Amino acid sequence: MQNKVTVTIDDQEYTLVASEDAAYMKKVAAHVDAKIREVRQGGKVSATDAAVLAALNMADEYFKGLEHAENLRAQIKESLEESKRLNMELSEAKREIFGLQNQKKK
What is the dotted CATH code of the domain comprising 3-105? Predict the structure, then answer.
């Protein structure tokens, strides 16, 4: 189902049509608007330049976010491997204890 919503970005109205719900589209538009306004606060910048600079800032945040996510995935993978190794050591220690207990009973 396509949803249609009108949003304001940099004092311009845009009608968006997407499968996402209206609240999500408004949230995205508000983010874009905030980024453009942030750029425009820095001085006299045309609407086009502000949009390009805001897009560059958002792309930078996106790529840094991807890198951070990849680092987290690597850390999780290392933790899982360490957990697997420790579980194997624990199983081996339990087998050893069981063997020693059986020897003691004999």
Answer: 3.30.160.880
**What span, in angstroms and rounded, lies between the C-alpha atoms of 33 and 36?**
5
Instruction: Give the span between the Cα atoms of 106 and 99, in whole angstroms.
Output: 11
Q: What angle separates helix 47-105 from helix 22-41, to the nearest 10 degrees?
A: 120
Q: What is the CA radius of gyration of the chain?
A: 28
Strands 3-9 and 12-18: antiparallel
HEC string of the chain equals: CCEEEEEEECCEEEEEEECCCHHHHHHHHHHHHHHHHHHHHCCCCCHHHHHHHHHHHHHHHHHHHHHHHHHHHHHHHHHHHHHHHHHHHHHHHHHHHHHHHHHHHC
Using one digit for the tens of pLDDT, what is the confidence trace for 3-59?
A: 999 999 999 999 999 999 999 999 999 999 999 999 999 888 999 999 999 999 999
Residue-range domain boundaries for the chain = 3-105
